[in-house]
Amino acid sequence: MSFAVAVLVAAGLALFGLPFRSYHFWYSWTPKVFCAGFLGYLAIAGFGGGFVGWLPGQLGVLTPTTNDVLNGLIFGFAGSLAVRADFGGRAPAGAPEARRAASLIGKSIDWTSGMLDQVACRAVANWAKNLSDAQLLELARDISYGIGAASPAVVPGKAKVTTIKTVTDAMAAIGSADPTQQDDARARLTQFCLRYICAERVPKPAPPQK
Description:
Blueprint: H1 2-14, H2 20-29, H3 31-58, H4 68-87, H5 96-129, H6 133-149, H7 157-173, H8 179-200
Helix pairs in contact: 1-3, 1-4, 2-3, 2-5, 3-4, 3-5, 4-5, 5-8, 6-7, 6-8, 7-8
């Protein structure tokens, strides 16, 4: 009973382990992959976190109370904290067996989120490459306006000026009569949009007007 409760508690806490904007980003770009990856994440974090918290009790290291349900709640919280500590780069406390398990689970969570990032960014790249020149210009213009309006604490002034100038030059070159310059400008704008969308976790926008 205590293990089952610990798993449920750890899975529930795992929902808050990653930022909402990451969930929104992954789902908007790759809904099917996100659903599979999210279920995998909950399974890893739930069963793993529950096991890490429950294990010390089975080893005789920790038996908080005589109530299985209450123990399960404590084990679930403790396991989630241990896994989150390792996931955040800090060594979890506790028995060596629990520390090793937490490290393995933390790496599994890291791999799952990295996989979702890679698949979503590949979807962004394919989407951006299929935009018409007018659609790509509209998207790049919207992003550059957002960067221009950003606080200096978010985007330093020098980086802001350099980025906007680079994008503006590419936007002007995309209308060049030289096909080579057009291709180069389009590639630069596509990469600019791709990097921004992936770095800022931007959800998939509505299709730009042609």
